[in-house]
Amino acid sequence: MSVNESLAQLSNGLVYSSMLVYAGSLVLFASSFASSRPFAEVEAEQQARAKAGDTAADLTATSATTSAPVNSKMTSGTSRTAVSAAGSSTSGSFTSGSSTSGTAALARGSGDDRELPPGRKAGNMAMSLMWLATLLLAVGVAARGFSAGRVPWGNMYEFSISSALAVSIVFLLLSLRRDLRWLGMFVVGAVLLTLGAAVTILYTDSAQLVPALKSFWLVIHVLAAIICAGAFTVGAGFTVAYLIRERAEKKAVASGTAVKGWFSTRIPGADRLDASAYRINAFVFPLWTFAVIAGAIWAEDAWGRYWGWDPKETWAFITWVIYAGYLHARATAGWRGRKAAIIGLMGFVSFLINYFGVNFFATGLHSYAGVS
Amino acid sequence: MSTVDPGTRDSQAREDESATADLSTQPKSDLPGAVVGLGLTGWLRWMWRQLTSMRTALLLLFLLAIGSIPGSILPQEPVQPSEVTRYIADNPGIGEFFDAIGFFNVFSAPWYVAIYLLLLVSLVGCIVPRTRLHWKAMRSTPPKAPSRLSRLAESSSWTADSTPPAPQDVLNEAAEELKGKRWRVHITDFDGTTGAVSAEKGYLRETGNLIFHVALLVLLLAVALGGMFGWRGQALVIEDESFSNTVTQYDSFNAGRLVDAGNLPPFSLTLDEFTATYQEEGDQQGAPRTFEADVTFRDNPDATSAQQRVEVNSPLVVDGAKAFLVGHGYAPVVEVRNAQGLVVYDAPTVFLQTDGNFTSNGVVKLPDADPQLGFQALFLPTAAVDEVRGPISMFPALNDPAIFLSAWEGDLGLDDGIPQSVYRMDTAGMTDLGIKAIRLGESWEIPGGRGTVSLTGVKQYAVFDVAYDPARFYALAGSIFALLGLMLSLFVPRRRVFVRVTRRHAGSPAGQGAAGAHIEVAGLSRTDEAGLKPAVEEITAVVKKIVPPIGESTTEPVDNTTADRVDDTGVSTTGRTGEEQRPDA
After folding, report:
1. A&B contacts, CB < 8 Å
2. Which of B250, B268, B467, B520 would be B233's cystine partner, CB 3.0–4.6 Å?
3. pTM of the full predicted structure?
């Protein structure tokens, strides 16, 4: 089957343009982050506004819904420290409060034409650009696949652009449920780095597959690994943010003041970051297990043994063991929090070695880099 | 909330503790402050507890991960023995050291085996008590509801009319609703003052956890059994030649301890033809595209023969084993005639590739000549001479085959008593007769009147890995169950929900304000989960349908936000949002 050159060109063009749009989004995320005010201030302001707005709404008998359900004790179970009391937003009401009070403000109308908080406009634009960039990249990846008549992950270049797409999609899906603009810089940075490496070092023309990859398992095993790449990367972002924030909160508790730090005050509280990181990692760990098992089944079919300690297999195993250690650590007294988070980060580093390092630095049965 | 008289406070406290504590089946030894005895049994017990504790498991997991790293960086004996030898030769000091500590055979090294054996013991030592605890938990009823439901992570409360439904009926109906949602339920009957329903759900979580760990055990066992009863070998078969499944015909063969190597499945195969295609153009020029080995095989000498095309992802399945296509190469047919013109050598000779374009090395030895004759040769399927690199192949297919020969005369060393590689010739002590490059169909007069050598044809060969692993389906089953157990243990939430009905009397200290029933709904979760709040809200809505708050009829849609937060005066206050304060229940 011959390769459709025009589709391949289209794919390259779309990948490049998506990189441009990502770059724009990165700049806007950075500017939004830099000019945003500390979460605590914003939340206090919105609560005050919500109160005022609700009273007004009561009087005018319109529905006074804010999305802060009154009956539940938010996360007060975890807000044990003075720091949290000082407003380091550990509650879900922050995000929903921010967006709905924004829209509620607009809905109330009648002279209440307040502007969005500083940085919010840039953040919104950054998110829109990111949606656009992801769309461009998705079409680019699809075009690459169509140009060769197969799934678009048959060599390192294609694997990298697919992984970058996965990172982006995971981030965008999560951002539908809560405000993740603060994480935008990290995610777009990771995506751009991957795409940059892909189009420069890893690039190879669209072509057919080597015989070893001509199997149905290519779709299953590698797709699972790509989705895991996306989830692990976003999870690592949460983990890094957690580590920074946790140190700031510890300092604040020790000195009896509010949380300080340019970065730390602009991100959610440590507990929530930890919970989010855990949820992502716990969600994707079974998928990683499945990717390894699918790889073993494929290996049995192709090479006659389901496990041969090939460097890629070994590092996939190491990554699995480290994330298993992370899950165990979170269930062990004295290991939750900082120690578990560091283990989680080590798991991510191991994953990067598994994904990039092995294809370049070790020769084994997995050397499909397509790079000479 | 009604005050509790001091006499019952202790028992209440204990109840509360048990209600909120025992969702964990974690061994108590992991909790700080576990008491240890002394004496021999005491020490043994202490060591056992340490071994089976989570901390040790973490440490062992960590060691397992780190210990695997050298196995992925250094060449490993079972896979690339020649690379290992070369590494030690190139790096004598550190190479010897690595060899001594087993870094060239990590996954069979004693220290690595020790790590995962300890993990195994730790695993078993953890599974057994947890299974016992879980079994007990599965057969027990949920504990009594704590007295202070407001202290739980998620809770809500409201006041309802004291007239129908009666408190006991409320409890019964709530219990029925919860049972309908597959909660395990326990009712503490209304005793005139208060009554409650306790419900628990999510036992499957721990079941999944245990399944996962047991499945890991099964997997490890299957790997071990497969290693003991399985065997593998590699065989190189030239076109038109055959292979029979006996140990002597293998180029390399490994068998587990319990394998009867003299009794391998008696299949045989003939390689009829091997074809490979490559990418012709573009920046992946020369990359392989298809490999096809057409074989005729039979399961045993009495069976009928059959034909099959063996490809990389489609092995040959015979009775008792599978043959996988793992490599290929060229075997140029070299013909040597002596000075009298008689043919003394005429056979396809296996050459080993040295690069992606199949520049291949090989050797032709003629020990029966006098003096002995040998050729070191370089075969190029698409020949070219590069200025820097010398003779090199430009493309893997047979576009312009040529062979570069270097003739030697003297003692080949075959009678020295040391085995020699058929791919290498030691030219020390031999005389160099000359070099020549010849194309397909050409001949070369060997200098010194020794005769002629010609390249009469080129055949290809295929390399097959033949493998047998009787336990591989158990390994697969083990890993699939492990995956299922893992998903249950991570995604099924373990929760408890309580519903308490308390009668309030107007003017009494217990119920300031309106007479009626005070309803509380609360829940707690064993795990970090976002789903507790919506789950409790759902139960709250259900209970509100049964016994709606004062001022609401049952037909009104339940709305948590406008519904009421009852403060001490019994008056509902809508719109007070964002407050985290609660009335002191």
Report:
1. 193
2. B250
3. 0.79
